[in-house]
Amino acid sequence: MGKGVLVTGGTGYIGSHTVVELIEAGYEVIIVDNLSNSDESVIEGIEAITGIRPEFVKADCRDIDALEKIFKKGKIDSIIHFAAAKAVGESVEQPLEYYHNNILSLINIISLMRRHNVPNMVFSSSCTVYGQPEVLPATEQTPRLEAESPYGNTKRICEDIIRDSVKAYGSINAIALRYFNPIGAHPSALIGELPRGVPNNLLPYVTQTAAGIREVLSIFGDDYNTPDGFCIRDYIDINDLAAAHVAALDRMLDGKMKKSFEVFNIGTGQGVSTMEIVKTFEQVNGLQLNYRITGRREGDIEAIWADPSYANEELGWYARKSLYETLRSAWKWQQRLCGIDISDE
Ligand code: NAD
Ligand code: UD1
């Protein structure tokens, strides 16, 4: 089996870091992205890090004809399907957009895999499928709960579409990676997270507050039933998360899958509270954040973290970066975005 990989959503946050890991592992990458939530300049960052410029096609995964042109070139042995819209709040306001984009894109990809005999796919899923688990940490056997948002529901539906397709068609292998909370940037600060508008997620809000772009960070709720009263998440370094995709592809290409559809939790196994993130960020970067504690955010779950032992054992993959390194990289990336000279660091 060859090493050609089509990466949909490859100029996005997780996609771009994964492309770097793929290139460094000897894979030949073609990126397809419609640039709805990313910028083509990301390709320059990937090239600067790896010395190799991946092929880039601007196309929309909802457009099967445009996608098919890429498949017809015949260089694709595997697919990593990142392309999706991911803003939880927006999905509540525009559910049809979310169902249309996230589900049709996947259906097109699977249809073309069948038509062009491409057997392997890695799919971006999310720990959001677990909702608030009764027992922590979450394992892959933790029941999936009814989704809190249309976005979360698309992940659940997409997992089901993959499961049913793999079973029915026989010619497809798939691995769904359920990501916990990815944070940080490449250590070079040449690529990182580029949120559009006001960030919804914690880390971009933290770094933008530190940079003075946002006045004050709101910490949502201090009265949760957790040791310090703040929500708990499993924050996984973006480079570690990217490496999990290479491990998943290697497993497929080496014929090591135990079932033709497998699911893995990709997290550190450590639960960290929002306040611990804030305090560690201040400490490792030697600065003080302007924050205030406000009421709970609607739809937030109290606590979740992964049991990653199945991924550790089966993929040989481990989260390696310390929270210290990750929070340094997040700040270094924000400084670069702000044009602050980081060359001596
Ligand atoms: P991102 O928005 O940075 O990347 C997604 C990329 O897909 C963007 O570059 C966007 O332009 C592209 N895209 C969207 N719709 C497209 C379409 N129809 N055709 C072509 N390109 C399209 O998001 P990300 O954080 O890198 O997330 C990647 C994947 O991981 C998504 O499927 C997301 O749902 C999933 N995920 C993300 C997180 C997270 O916290 N970031 C957590 C769990 C799962
Ligand atoms: C959110 C989504 C989840 C999605 C994930 C990745 C919700 C309810 N969940 O997860 O479906 O998969 O993003 O995109 O939106 N926080 C603050 N202040 C802020 C921002 C966040 O205190 O300004 C807290 C939150 O309350 C939470 C933690 O920080 O406890 C992490 O929040 P966030 O980064 O938004 O991720 P999730 O809520 O875990």
Account of the protein in words:
This protein has 345 residues and is an alpha/beta fold. 39% of the residues lie in helices and 17% in strands. It contains eleven helices and 13 strands. The strands form four sheets. The protein has a seven-stranded parallel beta sheet, sandwiched between helices. Strand 5, helix 6 and strand 6 form a beta-alpha-beta unit. Uridine-diphosphate-N-acetylglucosamine binds next to helix 7 and strand 8.
Give the structure's gist in a few sentences.
It is built from eleven helices and 13 strands. With 345 residues, it is an alpha/beta fold.
β-strand amount: 15-25%
The topology string of helices and strands comes to EHEHEHEHHEHEEHEEEHEEHEHH
Major β-sheet strand ordering: 3-2-1-4-5-6-11
> What's the pLDDT, averaged over the residues?
96
Structural class, by secondary structure, is alpha/beta
> How far is the N terminus from the C terminus?
42 Å
Bound molecules: nicotinamide-adenine-dinucleotide, uridine-diphosphate-N-acetylglucosamine
What is the radius of gyration?
19 Å
The major beta sheet can be summarized as: 7 strands, parallel
Total beta strands: 13
Q: What percent of the residues sit in helical stretches (DSSP H or I)?
A: 25-40%
Number of helices: 11
Shape: globular
Low-confidence stretches: none
